[in-house]
């Protein structure tokens, strides 16, 4: 019903205008239904606009079938129902024609484009014996070149259509530019007439031209100057980075030892060899596959929504088949395959972990390099601008302790703020309740006043009380203000007198101190310069001594670690020697029970067990290989049998659904009457 509604609705619109309803459309004769189908096809391809009454039914069906194949229409029943589809199209059967109309009316613009392209892209079939002729072969080659040229031109045309440019907008722009051009020409003519009236205008024009040229040259030189400045700034930045790197490398070389350098270089070599030999070639191969896939997709013609839906259906079917095959394989897996799959999974997990760790290491190195570059740039900028150096060591620890104290204070304050906010919410809610009660009381009071005939009495009373309270407050404030001003004047006078009497001896002492300061200032500056020089020398000596102490501490730590390592190796070697002596005594013993506890006997027994297990496994592998071909054939036969039974089931269901009312269906061993 939904299909018929859609078909009738589309046929009643432009350009068909059939004026059908569901009853009239459903009661159409097969010839009329075929004529409607032909009208729809003629809307898609104008070559199909003919009267089917003037054509043989077989020719009509062949023409429609060819066009539907070109439009990539697929019958609902699939390949097995092609013959019934042809027969239904010849006789104008509704179950065949209705789905075709529904499919065509859903995608008329897309099918118009496909029919237009098919007129030029469907190649003519020329027999191979005719292509032996040079003229025909050359003509056919030119024909193929023209087809390829048409593909490229059509693709460019579609790109221009989808790029957003409109011919109307371009025409408006052209008209606007032509108008501006005319206005400029008129303006130039007016200026030329005005200049020609001036004496020596040629000389002035020449000077103006030279001025314009010089200004353009000045702009280009300014641009070049800016580029040179930018390049100079970038070169200075690179130089600073290189100097910092050189300084870091020199410090690392001064502090490091050959063993640590060799270890670091070996790690770098391993990492770089892994990147060059495994990771980067694999990524390059993946990128090449992606590029090839994208090139293949770009070279193919554009697909419509119907084709996309069809591809999605195929993908879903393929995924379901893959899942079914995986389930079947899991059901019939043997223990040997399970063991191998376990090892494969472990190997894949190790490979993935290795790749992830390598990527994390590379990202960490890049991040470390970026942070170091940013730190060096920030420190150099801070030093250039006269800023303080970065805090290190004990200062940083003190700063962290200070920040922790501030953090605890902040948490306390935040808790107090939360408590205050909660209390504020409670008070706000209380205020709202009191206001509601006050409003209710006011309304009751107003209703009582209205009943007694004295409306507005309470408002007037409140206003009078408020005015009297404000007046009394103002009077009190005026009295207090006058008293305060008189008292303040008295206090100020007494304070000024006291300050004068107290400052008079201090002023005398200040004069003597100023004279003494003028005498001692030069001597102070001289002593300060001497102190600064001495402090600078002591600071340099202190930094050298700190560097030496740091170096000696590192050497002591290295020697201590080396001592502990050698001591541990000594203990391990002694234990191994003792264990070897015990095993030697056990092997030389005459007691069989004692000799069986030797490691050599245990290893020999374990090796024998593993050899026997390997023989059993090899025998199982041999049996699997011998029976593989017969098992595969048996599995294929079962699959074919399953498909055959499914096909019989579908045919039976279809015959049962298409049987008319009262028709008897005869099957093997039974008859059925469909009511």
Automatic annotation (TrEMBL):
Pfam families: IFT81_CH (PF18383). GO terms for cellular component: ciliary basal body; intraciliary transport particle B. One of its GO terms (biological process) is cell differentiation. It comes from the Eukaryota. Transmembrane segments: none annotated. Residues 143-252, 308-437, 528-562 form a coiled coil. Keywords: Acetylation, Cell projection, Cilium, Cilium biogenesis/degradation, Coiled coil, Cytoplasm, Cytoskeleton, Differentiation, Phosphoprotein, Spermatogenesis. Component of the intraflagellar transport (IFT) complex B: together with IFT74, forms a tubulin-binding module that specifically mediates transport of tubulin within the cilium. Binds tubulin via its CH (calponin-homology)-like region. Required for ciliogenesis. Required for proper regulation of SHH signaling. Plays an important role during spermatogenesis by modulating the assembly and elongation of the sperm flagella. This is Intraflagellar transport protein 81 homolog.
